[in-house]
Write a structure and sequence with these properties.
Layout (H helix, E strand, L loop, with lengths): L1 H42 L2 H28 L2 H24 L8 E2 L5 E2 L8 H29 L6 H20 L7 H9 L3 H15 L4 H13 L1 H9 L11 H25 L6
Antiparallel strand pairs: 1-2
Helix pairs in contact: 2-3, 3-4, 3-5, 4-5, 4-6, 4-10, 5-10, 6-10, 7-8
Length: about 280
């Protein structure tokens, strides 16, 4: 009987181990199935169904813009950097509005004409002007990083990589400086309207001069038409007394701070563009 017991004990131990292993496998499979089920539940919620087309449209328009700018500028590298510069600018608007609890849209690219972030509900006047300034601020910051990378890489006239990144910095500074022209539909127009809408007159003159001197393109014509539709009627309203140029809702102190921030970003963008401009063939 003792020998039989001794034989039975190892068998019983093996059976328990086998049962334990099978039980462990079943528990693991059960957990995996539960996680997989939870993942499917998340993937097929209505939120994802509504968000997926927006993501597809946003990223699809971005990739199309990369392709277009690559054709224009003669290379994929510059096309990608160009689009990333625009993306960083738009993320400045997006992140700022989201931090204020405003349901802003994902950046949407219009190939050949930049991109935009929409916030239909909007926020308070101060929040809206902060979001308008955040785009150029982020954009100038990205251009400055490219400039630093170019400086670290070496002399632009001798090192191709340094020349490339310095050129990218110039593009970033110039794009954001152009966007700061104080007239709709630019961010500068939103800021000017918050400070004193009469500044739009300066913006219209500046944009008109740019179109006459350099803007012999479809892009320039479209921008000019947008300005005529958005800014000119309001300027006429100012002269007729039907539009209050200081009716943005900002307090005097907020107007002063906004103007100071705007001028500071403009100054940095001008200085950066001047410092990173490289003559062709240099």
């Amino acid at each position: 009987m003792q020998d039989d017991d001794r034989l039975a004990q190892p068998r019983a131990t093996k059976e328990r181990r086998g049962a334990g292993a099978i039980g462990g496998i079943l528990v693991a499979l059960g957990l995996a199935a539960a996680k997989f089920k939870a993942l499917l539940a998340v993937l097929f919620t209505f939120k994802w169904l509504f968000l997926a087309p927006k993501l597809l449209l946003s990223f699809g328009s971005m990739f199309l813009s990369v392709w277009l700018y690559a054709q224009w500028f003669g290379g994929w590298k510059i096309g990608i950097v160009f689009v990333l510069m625009i993306l960083v600018h738009e993320l400045g608007h997006f992140v700022t509005w989201r931090n204020y609890g405003v349901n802003a849209s994902l950046p949407m690219f219009i190939p050949g004409f930049g991109a935009f972030v929409s916030a239909p509900a909007g926020g308070t006047p101060a929040q809206n002007v902060a979001a308008a300034l955040a785009g150029p601020l982020f954009g100038v910051g990205a251009a400055a990083l490219c400039w630093v990378y170019g400086i670290v890489a070496g002399e632009p006239s001798l090192v191709p990589q340094a020349r490339f990144w310095t050129g990218c910095a110039y593009i970033g500074f110039f794009l954001n400086l152009f966007n700061l022209i104080p007239t709709p539909p630019f961010d500068g127009g939103a800021v000017a309207g918050a400070v004193d809408a009469r500044l739009w007159i300066v913006g219209v003159v500046l944009l008109g001069l740019w179109v006459l001197l350099f803007g012999h393109t479809v892009f320039a014509v479209v921008i000019l038409l947008l300005m005529l539709v958005t800014a000119v009627p309001r300027i006429i309203g100012i002269f007729r007394g039907t539009f209050d140029p200081r009716g943005s809702g900002l307090l005097p102190v907020q107007r002063a701070v906004t103007l100071a921030a705007y001028l500071a970003i403009v100054f940095v963008a001008i200085a950066g563009a001047a410092a990173t401009h490289i003559e062709r063939g240099a």
